[in-house]
Design brief:
Structural class: mainly beta
Number of helices: 1
Order of helices and strands: EEEH
Pfam families: DUF4295 (PF14128)
InterPro entries: DUF4295 (IPR025379)
Helix content: 10-25%
Protein name: DUF4295 domain-containing protein
Number of strands: 3
Shape: elongated
Strand content: over 45%
Distance between the termini: 10 Å
Strand order of the largest sheet: 1-2-3
Mean pLDDT: 81
Low-confidence stretches: none
Radius of gyration: 12 Å
Length: about 50
């Protein structure tokens, strides 16, 4: 499962997007959230990675 936040951040002339992914721990089975700030083009690759 993946969850994406549609929050855009402006820093100077660069446009950045904050992406949030829900990851299931193989040990405990609990879900955790992984956050990352990146260019909008890299969001789909971030969400596809396990």
């Amino acid at each position: 499962m993946a969850k994406k936040s549609v929050a855009s951040l402006q820093t100077g002339s660069k446009r950045l997007t904050k992406a949030i992914k829900m990851v299931k721990s193989p040990k405990t089975g609990a879900y955790t959230f992984v956050e990352s700030i990146m260019p909008p083009e890299a969001v789909s690759d971030f969400l596809k990675k396990k």
